[in-house]
Amino acid sequence: MYSKVLTPNGFVKISDLKINDEICGTNKTIQKVIGVYPKGKLKVYKLKFNNGQTVECSENHIWNINT
């Protein structure tokens, strides 16, 4: 992957991320990388929540959100 993500120390290629690395999230939060998945083609699913929001994800890509 050639895309980059913002970390507290600047931009880093997504392919260089490792578990426990920190990345910048929304609202000035710092998020911790909890998993790294192999590159390849994946089927994308669209999930629709009761409140009307939707999210796209793959079957092995699960987001954990802590508040």
Structure characterization notes:
The chain is globular and about 35 Å long. Strand 1 and strand 2 form a beta hairpin. The mean pLDDT is 81. With 67 residues, the protein is an all-beta fold. The strands form three sheets. The chain has a two-stranded antiparallel sheet with strand order 1-2. The chain has a two-stranded antiparallel ribbon with strand order 3-4. Strands 5-6 form a two-stranded antiparallel sheet. 0% of the residues lie in helices and 36% in strands.
Record the strand order, biggest sheet.
1-2
Query: What is the radius of gyration computed over CA atoms, rounded to a whole number of angstroms?
Result: 14 Å
Report the order of strands and helices: EEEEEE
Q: Outline, from the CA principal axes?
A: globular
Structural class of the secondary structure composition?
mainly beta
- The number of strands is 6
- Terminal CA distance reads 29 Å
Q: What is the tally of helical segments?
A: 0
What percentage of residues falls in helices of 4 or more residues?
under 10%
Poorly predicted ranges: none
> How confident is the prediction overall: mean pLDDT?
81
Strand content: 35-45%
Main sheet record: 2 strands, antiparallel
Briefly, what is this?
With 67 residues, this protein is an all-beta fold. The protein has strands spanning 4-7, 10-13, 22-24, 30-32, 44-48, 54-58.
